[in-house]
Amino acid sequence: MDKTKEKTLHQLLKKHFGFNTFKGNQEEIIDNLLAGKDTFVLLPTGGGKSLCYQLPAIIMEGTAIIISPLIALMKNQVDAIRNFSSEEGIANFLNSSLNKTEIKRVKDEVSSGKTKMLYVAPESLTKEENVEFLRNIKISFYAVDEAHCISEWGHDFRPEYRRIRPIINEIGKAPVIALTATATPKVQHDILKTLEIIDANVYKFSFNRPNLYYEIRPKIGATKEIIRFIKNNEGKSGIVYCLSRRRVEEMAEQLVANGIKALPYHAGLDSQTRVRNQDAFLMETADVIVATIAFGMGIDKPDVRFVIHYDIPKSLEGYYQETGRSGRDGGEGQCITFYSYDDIQKLEKFMQGKPVAEQEIGKQLLFETVSYAESSVCRRKLLLHYFGEEYTQNNCENCDNCLNPKTQFDGSESIVTVLQCIVEVQEKFKAEHISDILCGNATSSIKTYNHHNLESFGIGSDENKKYWLAVIRQSMIKKFIIKDIENYGLLSVSDEGKKFMEVPYEIMLMRDHEYEEGDDDDMPKGQVGDNAADPIIFAMLKDLRKQFANKQKLPPFVIFQDPSLEEMAIQYPITMDEMKNIVGVGEGKAKKFGQPFIELITKYVEENEIERPQDMVVKSVINKSSLKVFIIQSIDRKIPLDDICNAKGVDFEELLNELEAIVYSGTKINLNYAISQVIDEEKQLEVYDYFRNADSDNLEDALKELGEDDYSMDEIRLMRLKFISEMGN
Could you tell me the maximum CA-CA distance found in the chain, to the nearest angstrom? Predict the structure, then answer.
């Protein structure tokens, strides 16, 4: 580029965007586009992709057509450009959010030459009336943003993106610039081929984001962990990603209940709410957005300080793009992901029913994700390798694996043992069954198939079942084992696995990443139930409970159950608000029984100068699901229990489970009308008296004591509900 042209370009950059210099290869990319050449740009999030087409659009004659996948992204980009420019109508968008009057205004501004950038969704681009309109417009170039959407191997494949080139040919040819923040070599080739720009000049930048910290955590007590993390990073902007809309709503509600300024964002919200919530995040009236992947594409907020994945993404490309929304200004960016192999299995199930080719692609992308999560290798090295870039350092010093190196061991012998067992059972059984054989667990299923007589039975009994499941999972990642999702998850040995059995070689496996499976409601390991409770105050609370129970003439478990006392011995609640948020307590029980316990804990904390873990006090949102509300209302109206089951399509077991959840959370319900229909008064009194004098509310103990011939388990469960509701709530 000659000096005069270079100077002019810098002057225009300063005039329109306020920057003195270009970032990286931006100037070279812009010069290539100004010369009318097709261009492919692979530039990680935060690298300045938008400028690569915005400045040429302003300089060149005509209107640039910018194809973008999301309405939110278009609005964000158009607002930003209008803020930079004093010229009205310099940028517009054309999509389904506009009414007829707004569409006419946009088309008038484009026709008059005012609009230099017209953002369109691919769906809008293909509409016949828009194709006809654009044929009569001078088009400077086409920019295909988020170009990875073209590829089935990309993390956000959109079929309508594959129709872009035929429509361009129909409207009128002009140079094409394709841009994306994430693309493997396979996806890059797909983009160039589908857009018919194989000869485009390609500009790639390093995928390394050294300021981002990557960490994978086991998905146990994840909601509580997320609340604590955000409270410890108070005032910082962050995004929490969830896969489902329902989970987005629940998570946002939980965060708000705990004093966090959070808002939900997903495609199920009306467009006005989405825009309002997005603007609140950008304007910092909300600190946290809880969202599905619909949020974030192109959102130009440089100071997002953390990105949390409640659900692990379906691909590493998705993970990289979403984590890349933090720390775009080069400052701190914490990327925390909660991982459970259960979630991977759910994602696999969602693929069933899709075309075989699509399933194969989805499974391979999931394998990469699992491999990343479970690996003890530097996270940065794994990510860059995935995108075809070599990272030569052994320790990045900014990921969990590098900061806390994990123990590795040669797992080749264990892998061969697993493969031999799969072959021995003729490749007709699931991972759980194979693990039971190796551990020597003589389950009913093992005995049914006579597998307790196999050579493999008990050969791995020096390790537990979790170990063998981990070996199987990691063997699947190595492609030694194939899991048939369509056929109940049966395992078979691949050709690569057969070769490995013949000539094994060293393969390093990791013990430390055998993630424990658990519910989100479970407490993380090392807390409740794992000797984390202060033993002195725990013993004092048990004594107080016993005294209180004797005084009230109630069994101790009616006052508070052991898990509640254990959590009190961790959290040290000293106010009624804190007490009612202890697991299994609730507002009713806190008011009825809580005061003496609060007084005891307060005195103990003061005398022993205990620093309370206030960041661990997490408020729960009462579960008011439609089913629970329906059940409570129906019982208030004395509707027979069978009719409640029929109305909601649940069996009696499910109804009892819901009733127990309602009663144990402290809600009082009157089941007398229903119980009287199925249990005579004498038997009711006998069961009631049993629980009044029992040491625990264990059902098996009750059935054994009262007599299996005289009572059914359902009758005892109903009576236990009546007892807890009347005496404890």
Answer: 102
Q: Which tokens is 105 given?
A: 């205004």
pLDDT tens profile 26-79: 889 999 999 999 999 988 766 678 889 989 998 899 999 998 877 666 767 777
Q: Which tens digit of pLDDT belongs to each residue from 196-219? A: 888 888 888 888 899 999 999 988
Are both 237 and 360 inside the same structural domain?
A: yes
The 3-state secondary structure of 571-631, one letter per residue: HCCCCHHHHHCCCCCHHHHHHHHHHHHHHHHHHHHHHCCCCCCHHHCCCCCCCCCHHHHHH
User: How far is residue 578's CA from residue 717's CA, in Å, rounded to a whole number?
Assistant: 31
Q: Are residues 255 and 164 in the same domain?
A: no
Q: Are residues 177 and 44 in the same domain?
A: yes
Sign of torsion over alpha carbons 396, 399, 401, 404: positive
- Residues 473-513: tens digit of each pLDDT: 778 778 899 877 556 568 999 999 999 999 999 988 866 45
Type of residue at 339:
Y
CATH number for the domain including 652?
A: 1.10.10.1390
> Do 87 and 9 have their domain in common?
yes
Question: 295: domain range?
Answer: 212-403
d(CA 77, CA 121): 13
Phi, psi dihedral angles at 419 (to 5 degrees) = -60, -40
Q: Do 392 and 467 share a domain, yes or no?
A: no
